């Protein structure tokens, strides 16, 4: 018989944070990843919740995801920008680009990244 173990969402987030640190993610990235995976799980989006962590870490191990990569702006066309994520973690790149799109929208009435 399989035993079910229950932990609080905060404990889950802390475990994930420590796990990402062991994989050499920066503290900032580890926190964002842990928070996002935890919140996705709590929201019922299991395809992007903690179920995805083992595959994500496999990608980090085999180099498909670049742990130290930083998204970089490549081109600007007024309220539109093109960015290169350099194979960094999607959660990190998407958050950075979403925040940039919000900044552009405040300046131009719309923002597209």
Write the layout of secondary structure elements.
Layout: H1 9-22, H2 27-42, H3 53-62, E1 72-77, E2 80-84, H4 90-108
Antiparallel strand pairs: 1-2
| CATH fold category name of the largest domain | Hypothetical Oxidoreductase Yiak, Chain: A, domain 1
Provide the CATH top-level class of the largest domain: Mainly Alpha
Distance between the termini: 49 Å
E-strand count: 2
Could you say what the CATH architecture of the largest domain is? Orthogonal Bundle
Unreliable stretches, pLDDT < 50, 5 or more residues?
none
Number of separate structural domains: 2
Helix content: 40-55%
Determine the strand fraction and express it as a percent band.
5-15%
C-alpha Rg (nearest Å)? 16 Å
Mean pLDDT rating: 97
User: What is the succession of H and E elements?
Assistant: HHHEEH
> For the report, how would you describe the main beta sheet?
2 strands, antiparallel
Q: Please work out how many helical segments DSSP would assign.
A: 4
What overall form do the CA principal axes indicate?
elongated
- What structural category arises from helix and sheet content? mainly alpha
Strand order of the largest sheet: 1-2
């Amino acid at each position: 018989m399989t035993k079910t173990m229950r932990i609080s969402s905060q404990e889950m987030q802390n475990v994930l944070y420590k796990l990402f640190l062991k994989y050499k993610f920066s503290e900032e990235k580890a926190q964002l990843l842990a928070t996002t995976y935890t919140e996705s799980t709590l929201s019922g989006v299991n395809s992007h919740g903690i179920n995805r962590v083992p595959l994500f870490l496999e990608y980090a191990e085999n180099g498909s995801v670049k742990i130290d990569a930083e998204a970089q702006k490549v081109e600007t066309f007024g309220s539109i920008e093109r960015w290169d994520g350099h194979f960094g973690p999607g959660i990190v790149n998407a958050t950075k680009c979403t925040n940039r799109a919000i900044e552009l929208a405040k300046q131009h009435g719309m923002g597209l990244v």
